[in-house]
Every structure is written in C-alpha cells, then in structure tokens.
Amino acid sequence: MRRDGLHSALTDFQRLGEVRELSPHDTHRVSEQPKSVSRYYDVVTMFYEIAWGQSFHFSPRQPRESLRASQQRHEEEIGQLLGLGPGMEVGDIGCGVGGPLIRIAQATGANITGVNLNDYQIRRGQNRLQRAGLSGSCGFLHADFMDVPLPDCAFDALYSFEAVCHAPNRRLAFREFHRLLKPGAEAAIVDWCLTDAFDVSNSRHNEIRERIERANATPELAIAGEYVDAVQSAGFEVIEAVDQQARHGDPASPWYMALQGRDISLSSFARIPAGRAFTATLTRALERIRIAPAGTSEAARILNVAADALVEGGELGIFTPSFLIHARKPT
Fold it and tell me: Are 313 and 209 in contact (CB under 8 A)?
C-alpha cells in the first residue's frame, strides 16, 4: 500500500458507519458495505499479521494450549468435520491471507478456492500459497461472497472462519453458499454472534455490541437463534448449531485471553493490553517524524477499541466468535 493509502482507506472505512444504518434489504447497503469492509482490512491487515500470524480467528482452547496451536487444531477439525479429502473442490469463504486454507489443504489434500474481496490480502495469500507449494491445487478468487462468479454446484463443501459477520445481508450470503454447493454437500460456518445471554433491554450490553460492531466492521451482529433461522431460510438443513467455546473450550482458557495480559509470550505481545498501548504510542511518534504513514496511529486506536469491547463481551458471556453452524444442502 502506498504511503497515502492508509489514510485514504481509513476515510473509506469510516463511511461504513453511514452505510450500516441502512436496512439489510437496502440495495445501496448490500453493494457499498462490502467495499467499506474491504477498506477496513486495508487498514488492519498489517497489524493482524503482526499479532495473529496467518490465521485471523479465535478458537476454543484446551488447557495450556497456545493460540497458534488452538487455531491449527480448530482448522484441522473443521476439515475433518466436513470429511474433506484429495480431489474435493472446496470453498473458503472470506479467506483472509490464507492461513486456514493452507493448513486445511495440507491436512486433507483438498483443492481449495479462497473467496475474498480484498486485493491486498489476496496478494499476501498468493505469496504464502506459492511458498507452501500449493499453487497448483489451490487459489484465490476476488469476489463478494454474496455474489460469487462461479457456476451452481461448484463446491463439494465449503467453510468460513469469522467472515459472514461482515455481510450486509447474511440471508443473501447463505443463499449464495447454498447455490454454490452440490446437493448433499455440507458447510461449516464459524462466526461471531451474540449469545442467548445478550439482553436487548440492557444498556451496557447494547453499548458493548455497538463498540464491537463499529470497531470491527461487523454491521449487525445476530443473536444465535437469528443466525440459525437465517441459515435455514436459505434452504439448508442444520446438522448442529453450537457455541464451540461453551461446549469444547477450557473455562480457564477462554477465547478472549488472547487479548488479555495473561496470555504472555513473545508472539502475543502485540495482542495484549501492554503491547497494544506500546504500539499506539510508537505509531503516534513515528507518524510525527513521518516514518509511519498518516493513519497508522488511528488504525491502532480502532484495534484497541475493538479488543477492549471483545474482552468485555466475552467476560459477560454475551458474545462469542466461535458459533458453529454445520449444515447440509438437501439432495
């Protein structure tokens, strides 16, 4: 990205606040919001790669398990859940820079197409794919995942990690996933949602929800039951719907500890409060002396707001990033 690109991306991302106020059925919201979300990832991807590596998702953790290890296990378990194997054509919806795609392809031998609207992330992913020796069997498709330029029944399976939460209309997204799958094929969607503990009449709950949505480009978080209804309305048979953290995670190692000061390691420094405060101070100083591009410190501030809101939502039990929908397209 050019030096002036970060500031421009921030300006475009801030337009998302205007677009998100529109109805999910408004055609302007459906067309414009994905562009603003892509600009959000122009802003934050560099920071994500520093703090998270190649996989931009949380995972239910086992006792004494690191974030990286939990992510790798989680990705491989999704491949196993879908029964992926050599020769299968698989979609990775909202694939980021390709971390899960590479891990699952290596573990299963499947041919995976990563669908992503962000050019910068696709370029980063293509470089990683080449280094992994998977360019011949896997690839990336620049597309809005509500309108994918592939024929009906293109995939034997598809999965997504924490991406559908960015969709301006999730029902449209699920209908597109249904179209892309062959009859009898399955989908595994891991996504952000509000839990049944969320109380719409509680002002604190609503304030935390608002901060999560605005700082993470997630326009309208669904409550778990609403999410299931949206999947079913697209024609899917829901096999399982579960908060993976609540069912499979270690209560002493919740998903949000990746953003807290008790998940200490060299690789975690950029995620924890002390590291995030250091980054914010450093980026302000580097901007002043024109080493860092304009907008770097504002990007760090947005991510701090996002992290604090996520931790609060997790501690109250009103939010989960690991709600799994395992669904099948009927034959």
Answer: yes
**Which residue type sits at 200?**
V
Q: For the chain, how are helix, strand and coil distributed in percent, rounded to 5?
A: 50, 15, 35
> Which run of H or E residues covers position 31?
helix 27-52
Say which amino acid occupies 81: L
Which H/E stretch holds residue 115? strand 111-116
First to last CA, the chain: 45
**CA nearest neighbour of 99 among 54, 158, 45, 163:** 54
Phi/psi at 293 (5° precision):
-70, 155
Contact 227, 325 (CB under 8 A): yes
The model's pLDDT over 189-211, given as tens digits with 9 standing for 90+, comes to 999 999 999 999 999 999 999 99
pLDDT in tens, 212-249: 998 888 888 999 999 999 999 999 999 999 999 888 88
C-alpha separations of 17 from 22, 161, 241, 272, 300 in Å: 10, 24, 30, 27, 18
Is 114 in contact with 108 (CB distance < 8 Å)? Answer: no
List 159's β-bridge partners, or say none.
Answer: 92, 188
Phi, psi angle pair for 181, to nearest 5°: -90, 145
Report d(CA 143, CA 163) in Å as an integer.
Answer: 13
Residue bearing tokens 């326009």:
219
Query: Can you tell me the distance from the alpha carbon of 213 to that of 233, in angstroms, rounded to the nearest whole number?
Result: 24
Cα(65)–Cα(86) distance, rounded to whole angstroms?
29
Provide the token pair at 211. 């901060």
CA 224 to chain centre: 17
Angle at the Cα of 206 from the Cα atoms of 205 and 207, rounded to 5 degrees: 95
Residue 13 pLDDT level (bands cut at 50, 70, 90): low
Residue matched to tokens 């503990």: 197
* Least-confidence region, from 15-24, 139-148, 319-328: 15-24
Cα Rg of the chain (Å, integer): 19
Record the pTM.
0.85
